[in-house]
Amino acid sequence: MYVLCSAILFSIAVCAVGQFPSHPQSEVEKENQDRVMKEANKKRQQEIHDDTEKLFQLATDLKSAVEKSNENLLSLDVVRKADEVEKLAKRVKEKMKEAVGPAPRTQPIPDTPYPGRTH
């Protein structure tokens, strides 16, 4: 059991070391990274806006097509429009889940010392 726990902790440590650079970022590197993240998020936000506008138009077209059909028959066009709405809605949902860079902090982390440790 001890060996298994040690192996798991070692694996986690190796993965963590690979995720963080071995040297601290320079101010220029940090500014460039921040700029790239902001641009990527701005582009994503614009894509969400554009897709939402298209989704609204498709849903309006679908509603109109359904209103024109009779109670006994829905046209193939209505089914296609419903599929388009579904696909686009999923794409918008996925883009909304994505974010580039760390999540913004809502509250600062308090500076609490560890027990038994002085600054």
Could you characterize the architecture of this molecule?
With 119 residues, the chain is mainly alpha-helical. It has a domain at 29-97. 69% of the residues lie in helices and 0% in strands. It has helices at 2-19, 27-68, 76-97. It is elongated and about 75 Å long. Residues 1-7 and 13-19 have low confidence and may be disordered.
Order of helices and strands: HHH
Radius of gyration: 25 Å
Unreliable stretches, pLDDT < 50, 5 or more residues? 1-7, 13-19
What share of residues are in beta strands? under 5%
**What's the helix count?**
3
- Helical content stands at 55-70%
Please tell me what the overall shape is.
Answer: elongated
Largest beta-sheet characterization: none
Determine the N-to-C terminus distance. 37 Å
Question: Top keywords for this entry?
Answer:
single chain, disordered N terminus, mainly alpha, 3 helices, 119 residues
Topology:
Blueprint: H1 2-19, H2 27-68, H3 76-97
Helix pairs in contact: 2-3
Describe the structure in brief:
The protein has helices at residues 2-19, 27-68, 76-97. By secondary structure, it is mainly alpha-helical. α2 (27-68) packs antiparallel against α3 (76-97).
